[in-house]
Amino acid sequence: MSGSPLSEPAALSCKASVPALEQLRQDITTCRSCSRLVAWREQVARHKVRRFQTETYWGRPIPGFGDPQARLLIVGLAPAAHGGNRTGRLFTGDRSGDWLFRALYRAGFANQPTSTHREDGLHLINAYICAAVRCAPPDNRPLPEEAETCLPFLVREMELLPEVRVIVALGQFAFEQTLKALRQQGKVLPKPKPRFAHGARYDLAPGLTLLGSYHPSQQNTLTGRLTEPMLDAIFTTVRQILLPDAGATPAGRCQTVLRQTTVAGF
C-alpha cells in the first residue's frame, strides 16, 4: 500500500508508543490472574498432543503483535490451545491462522501468506493483531469473568495504537469485547447498539470504523459458513476505507515491528 510518509507528529507518536507497548507485552505475558486459564494453558503445554511432542510450548498469555503505527486493528477471540499457546504468537500454527494470513497477504497487510512460528519472517504491514482473551481457554470458551479480567489489556493496547482507523472483530465475542473496550475509552457508540454480523459496518466516529467478520475457525470454514471470498471481501472493504491514506511508504513508516518477548516455555 502506498501513500505519504508519516508526518513528524505521527512519527513521534510511533516512537513514544513502542516502549509502552513493550511494557504492556511484559504485563500480559506474566499475568496469572485467572486460575482456570493458567491451569489449562500450562496443562496443555506439559501434556502435548502427539504431533507436537518434540516442541517447546509457549504456555503463557499472548500479547498482540504487528505494526505499532497500524491503521488496521484485528481483534480475535483467544489463542488456540495447540496454535498460539504452542507457538507464542496469535493465529500462528493453526488452521484459523492459515485462513487469516492468506487473506491478509492477498490484501497487502502481510508480507507472506503463512504463519507457522515466531521466527518465520512474518511481518504485518499497517496492521496489528490482538485478542479479547490472552490465554487459551478450555473448549475455546472463556468465562465472562475471565473476559472482564482481560479487558483492560485490550483497552490499553487500543489506546497505544493511535493511528487505528478500522477495527475488524473476528466473531461475536471479539465484537462485543471491542465495544466494551471502546466504551471504556470514552467513545460514543451509536444507538441502537451495534449488532454483530458478517460484513456489518459501523462508522463509530470520524476516522474510526468497526467491521464484523465471522471468525476463521474450522467450525466456520469447514461448514462453508465462512469462505475465502467472504473473508477477502472484509479486507477489501478495509482497503477502501483506508484509501487514499491507507499507509505510508516503507521509508516513511515506523520500522519497529513488535515481536514476542523471549521467555522460556514448557
Spatial ordering of strands, largest sheet: 1-3-2-4-6-5
Beta content comes to 5-15%
Poorly predicted runs of 5 or more residues: 1-10, 246-253, 260-264
Return Rg in Å. Answer: 17 Å
Keywords:
266 residues; alpha/beta; Uracil-DNA Glycosylase, subunit E; six-stranded mixed beta sheet; disordered N terminus; disordered C terminus
What is this entry, summarized?
The chain is α/β, with parallel strands linked by helices and 266 residues long. Helices cover 37% and strands 11% of the residues.
Task: Write up this protein.
- Helix 4 packs across helix 8 and helix 5 packs across helix 6.
- The termini are far apart.
- Strand 5 and strand 6 form a beta hairpin.
- The longest helix has 22 residues.
- This protein has a six-stranded mixed beta sheet with strand order 1-3-2-4-6-5, with helices on both faces.
- It has a single domain, classed as Uracil-DNA Glycosylase, subunit E.
- The chain is α/β, with parallel strands linked by helices and 266 residues long.
- The N terminus and C terminus are likely disordered.
Write the layout of secondary structure elements.
Elements: H1 8-29, H2 35-46, E1 65-66, E2 72-76, H3 84-87, H4 95-107, E3 127-131, H5 144-159, E4 166-170, H6 172-184, E5 201-205, E6 208-213, H7 218-221, H8 228-242
Parallel strand pairs: 2-3, 2-4, 4-6
Antiparallel strand pairs: 1-3, 5-6
Helix pairs in contact: 4-8, 5-6
